[in-house]
């Protein structure tokens, strides 16, 4: 079901990891950001858009992870975009002739049968200096940063004050660092600083996973994420409501992600 969160901006929440797909109405059709997870959900989005007489005019993937790169034939053949670095990362992943089989193995078993991989990652990289999504709808500013994944982009729908944060600023997931980057901690802090700089323009926050929030949530989540990353950097004890007994039911595994990050960072130093 598509739910309106601002004028002309709708969100579809997936059952898998509370993933949010975002639709922005445009002149000749809709912009679809991070299209969804299962075939049935993407079909439902396609049907919803047909009822609204808004065919998909363009797609956008916030970053090169499978749950943000999916697509379904029913959504049509509109151009799909990502940053140049995002597209490059997808190309590298798919240079392995067995990428589809590898990807299939990693899918959560409970949804694996209903995740169509054929159109995964068919995105065009936008030139590095691109500041807006090229389409004929509302102005959508691209805020690229290196933190969670190469070429990760948050999108700011300026006229509506909606921030589509990708895998940043989640209330259920801790900051998940890109441990392959040269300086994952500083990258993450710089990305939070970038988001801090536009926080005053945000009225609605839509994270890639988890609950939406208002202006207050943007500031609160930036502070919470910064505290987490700084604690990692400084070797402090991490106290974070998203890990441990205070984690949201069903999200207890995030504590394992945290442990994995601690180990990954320890191995680097
Ligand atoms: Zn994700």
User: Roughly what is the average pLDDT, rounded to an integer?
Assistant: 95
Structural class: alpha/beta
What portion of residues is helical?
Answer: 25-40%
Largest sheet: 7 strands, mixed
The rounded Rg comes to 18 Å
Q: pLDDT under 50 segments (min length 5)? A: none
Q: How many strands appear in the DSSP assignment?
A: 11
Bound ligand species: zinc ion
* N/C terminus separation: 46 Å
Regarding quaternary structure, how should these chains be classified? single chain
Shape: globular
Number of helices: 6
Strand content: 15-25%
User: Strand sequence of the main sheet, in spatial order?
Assistant: 1-2-3-4-5-6-7
Q: Spell the H/E element sequence.
A: EEEEHEEHHEEEEHEHH
Please, could you describe this protein's structure?
The protein has six helices and eleven strands. By secondary structure, it is α/β, with parallel strands linked by helices. The N and C termini lie far apart (46 Å). A hairpin with a 2-residue loop joins strand 1 and strand 2. Strands 1-2-3-4-5-6-7 form a seven-stranded mixed β-sheet. Strands 8-9-10-11 form a four-stranded mixed β-sheet. Helix 4 runs antiparallel to helix 5 (215-234).
């Amino acid at each position: 079901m598509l739910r309106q969160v601002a004028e002309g901006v709708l969100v579809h929440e997936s059952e898998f990891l509370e993933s949010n797909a975002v639709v922005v109405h445009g002149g000749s059709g809709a912009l679809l950001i991070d299209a969804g997870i299962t075939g049935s959900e993407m079909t439902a989005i396609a049907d919803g858009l047909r009822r609204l007489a808004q065919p998909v005019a363009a797609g956008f993937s916030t970053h090169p992870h499978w749950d943000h790169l999916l697509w379904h034939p029913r959504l049509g053949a509109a151009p799909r975009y990502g940053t140049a670095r995002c597209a490059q990362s997808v190309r590298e992943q798919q240079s392995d002739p067995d990428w589809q089989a590898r990807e299939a193995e990693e899918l959560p078993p409970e949804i694996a049968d209903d995740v169509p991989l054929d159109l995964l990652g068919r995105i065009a990289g936008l030139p590095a200096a691109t500041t807006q999504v090229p389409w004929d709808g509302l102005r959508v500013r691209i805020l690229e940063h290196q933190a969670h994944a190469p070429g990760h982009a948050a999108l700011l729908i300026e006229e509506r004050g909606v921030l589509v944060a990708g895998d940043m600023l989640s209330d259920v997931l801790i900051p998940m660092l890109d441990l392959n980057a040269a300086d994952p901690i500083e990258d993450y802090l710089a990305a939070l600083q970038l988001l801090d700089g536009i926080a005053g323009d945000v009225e609605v926050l839509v994270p890639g996973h988890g609950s939406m929030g208002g202006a207050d949530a943007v500031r609160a989540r930036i502070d919470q994420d910064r505290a987490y990353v700084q604690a990692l950097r400084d070797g402090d004890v991490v106290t974070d409501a998203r890990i441990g007994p205070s984690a949201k039911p069903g999200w207890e595994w995030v504590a394992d992600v945290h442990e994995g990050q601690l180990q990954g960072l320890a191995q680097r130093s």
